[in-house]
Amino acid sequence: MNESYLTESGMGFRSWFLTRDHKRIAILYLISITIFFLIGGVAAGLMRSELATPKGDLVTSDTYNRLFTLHGVVMVWFFLIPSIPNVLGNFLLPLMIGAKDLAFPRLNLASWYVFMFGGILTLWSIVIGGVDTGWTFYTPYSSTYANSHVILMATGVFISGFSSIFTGLNFIATIHKMRAPGQTWFRLPLFVWSLYSTSIILVLATPVLAVTLVLVALERLGGVGIFDPAIGGDPLLFQHLFWFYSHPAVYIMILPGFGVVSEIIPCFSRKRIFGYRFIAFASVSIAVLGFLVWGHHMFVSSQSVFAGIVFSFLSFMVAIPSAIKVFNWTTTLYKGQITLSTPMIYALGFIGLFTIGGLTGLFLATLAVDVHVHDTYFVVAHFHYIMVGGMVMAYLGGIHYWWPKITGRMYPEKLGQLSALIIFVGFNLTFFPQFLLGYLGMPRRYHAYPEQFQMLNILSTAGATILAVGYLFPLYYLPRSFFRGPKAPQNPWRATGLEWTIASPPSSHNFEVVPTVDDEPYNYLKMDAVASSETEVTP
Amino acid sequence: MNRDHISDLPDHLSDSNQRAEMATLGMWIFLTTEVLFFGALFLAFTIYRHKYSADFVAASDHLNVWLGGLNTFILLTSSFFVALAVAAAHAGNRKRTNWHLCATVILAVIFLGIKAIEYHQDFTEKLIPGRHFNVSGTDSSAIAHQQLFFCFYFIMTGIHAFHMIAGTGVMAWMIMKNLRTKEDPMTQTDRIRVESIGLYWHFVDIVWVFLLPLLYLTGLERL
């Protein structure tokens, strides 16, 4: 076996836990967020089991509150936010721009340790009893009334925020200063553009969450603080500060997915991506607009009507760059030579589910409609279509697409396709009924509900079971293929991009010679022309 | 130990200019996050300052403007010394860099000492928010709003002081490191370090320049 980053510096404890190699750090992240995903998933499973019957018979309402808080906190901060950026981004960013590592390799390792420290504090707060505020920590409940470990969990999230900031900072410096000769901004793969936009949000939004959590913790600790109505403080201010982070954070959780899909679609349609610059700038404009829409979470929280109108209008604006992307992907598919391999199934699933999630977002951005569906299952379904239907699909698509590069092994294609389909079906069965439930008026965050909602809830729980089975498949065959799978060639998909010009898996220092870029990123026409001329010469 | 006296580039880089630019960019991005961190506090303060204007002016009256002013002078002087330290580091003079860093650290410690005296005064005057908070007045809502002002005062100056302690710690580490390293001129790594410390310290300084008028000078007309 050839020497690669997996073997070169040995397999000792220190060689992994003190590594500065961006690829090894990506693997550390991959394993840790998979564990967090399973923990968050178990909580979701328990919630769906409870909701299979109208009565609250499996868990008490208090336990249920702690379950959805656990699910939200773990999935948002310890799975979705780090998922694509810290695993695929960490692994691929230097490879895609022809660099030997990220700008600050030690900071990169530090970000993993900080992430794990925050994660362990959070898990600890769960083990000793959990938190019942929901992942949003709304005051005054979180600051005054909640009878649970709010401070500890908020500290965990606060600490993990530094990991986000380190990563964002590292990516921005890397993209600005370490591109290969000839790789201009418009020769960057779109995945890099999406990481850049994500990083901007990470560094600008995370500090606001950090200070907000500090304020909540201090208020809880001291019994007095700036959100306290008793001294003239305004609890709504907390919501403003929280959503100033958390709405952009939604884009942290979807922009990298756009990037992955923009890589997969041209490759499996054998076509140049349609509207490269539009997709690139759409990412940046989503990052910018994302900072101006936080108020749409507070339409019914005593925010002024005029603020509501402005936030509603701005929220509609986000639909424009999002739609630009969807149209461009669709146009790329048009008359392409489409192969329905596993990553492509995930990417196509992404387009469909993201479109549904995005359009239902417009319902919610409409002031009058939001009054009806606010805090119902309609909202739950909407953001799961974006977060799970969008981001998790893209993440799995990306993991499959770059699996040969990361591990040097091929995964079993048939099993991959099958599990992608199971996940697609299971996902829709889980969350589509929730749109109907929400429209009919079932509120979120209750462990019991009137009997007329049972049929739709059973469908949703059945879907969740199928979804869980779908997730278990890759969890089985991917690790297995790492040990037993057939060896992967350098470029199994005949894809463009610098990462495919080096060995699978890459060596520790990635490139033997610094590559030069002299072409646009998705020149599949040239790629296929070269390939066909080669086969003619050597029949 | 440095592998190479003149160039100490990490393995993944090939160009020392690129490295210097990268480090400065990284530091500026970090400072941007700090601006947002304090920005949220300034925003919240501004909202309440507008809403409870008279009460905030009355609360501000309890602060010691002279100690606040003295501290401003001390902190600005420390920034002057850190600028000299950066200049000395650019010239590669390790010894001179260290003297200026020492001056900065001493001034920072004096600042923190004066801050501690202020906090102690606030404590004896029962200005700490909570059960023992007590300012004279008959209007209970006005007293409540003054308590809100003091929440901001302690959180904002407290977080600022925390940033100063962190910066002082890093400078002390840098001084120790310089003392242990005999070689002159300084390596690029150390020059970048001093430059980053300088940027950070100026930022801490600027935050205080905003805190002084917002917190202390609000009640000045009554002097």
In words, what does this structure look like?
The complex is a heterodimer of chains A (539) and B (223). Chain A has a single domain, classed as Cytochrome c oxidase-like, subunit I domain (Cytochrome C Oxidase, Chain A, Up-down Bundle). Helix content of chain A is 69%, strand content 0%. Chain A is built from 17 helices and no strands. Chain A has helices at 13-17, 22-50, 61-96, 105-127, 141-145, 150-177, 190-222, 235-252, 255-269, 276-289, 305-333, 342-365, 367-373, 377-407, 413-440, 454-484, 524-537. Chain B has 223 residues and is mainly α. In chain B, helix 3 runs antiparallel to helix 6. Classes of the chains: A mainly alpha (539), B mainly alpha (223). At the A-B interface, helix 6, helix 7 and helix 8 of A face helix 1 and helix 5 of B. Chain A: Its EC number is 7.1.1.9. Chain A: It catalyses: 4 Fe(II)-[cytochrome c] + O2 + 8 H(+)(in) = 4 Fe(III)-[cytochrome c] + 2 H2O + 4 H(+)(out). Chain A: Belongs to the heme-copper respiratory oxidase family. Chain A: InterPro entries: Cyt_c_oxase-like_su1_dom, Cyt_c_oxase-like_su1_sf, Cyt_C_Oxase_1, Cyt_c_Oxase_su1_BS, Cyt_c_oxidase_su1_bac.
State Rg of chain A: 23 Å
Question: Which CATH first-tier class of chain B would you pick?
Answer: Mainly Alpha
Question: Could you tell me the mean pLDDT of chain B?
Answer: 91
CATH topology term of chain A: Cytochrome C Oxidase, Chain A
Report the strand count of chain B.
0
- CATH architecture of chain B, by name, is Up-down Bundle
Oligomer: heterodimer
Largest sheet of chain B: none
Order of helices and strands of chain B: HHHHHH
The biggest sheet of chain A amounts to: none
Protein chain pair with the most extensive contact, residues per chain: A-B, 45 and 39 residues
CATH topology of chain B: Four Helix Bundle (Hemerythrin (Met), subunit A)
Return the CATH architecture of chain A.
Up-down Bundle
